[in-house]
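Subject: sequence -> structure tokens, single chain

Hey, anyone have a minute? Need the predicted structure for the following. Not urgent.
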Amino acid sequence: MKIETIILAGGKSSRMGKDKALLTINGKPFLAHIYEQTVQFSQQVYIVSPWQEKYRNLVPNRCQFINESIPFKGPLFAFAQALEYVQSDWVLLLACDLPYLDFAMLQIWLDQLSQICLDTTDAIAFLAPNEKGWECLCGFYRKTALNSLQIYLKTGRKSFQNWLSQEKILPIQIQNNNIFFYCNTPNDYIKINKQKI
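Reply:
Had a minute. Here:
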């Protein structure tokens, strides 16, 4: 099945104290690592950020940047903006700070999704459940979710979990929860560098 990917790289990294997208893992910036895990199956990869000039040399020219029209308005707003560019029926949405993300796991999820979609037409996302609801920034969404998302954003709210609670979601079968480890703080970064990824 055809899949495109959106990577969000527009946060302030306030808890980290420095730009998370530029932190390195195995000698590569986080943003480049995320791109490399997805480009193997994505027809197009988009990076949403107000700092295209800072990240442009981290990824090949075929990667398309989307300039965040209103910086720091939140990931849901950035996602809605990027969805307007998507051409595939389903899109993979990712944060830029997922150090344990790997191609093999994503391929398993894609295989699950390709089988489920044959029988399911009304779900707007394919996500892993967690204690808060869903893993919003590491999973798949329908292109057609844009209409629902735009209606929701017009209410002034900007919570992924609140929006998704009103929609039908398909659950991803998870083998390893480490993939959802977000590197948000200096201690998180120390932890991943002590482990071999």
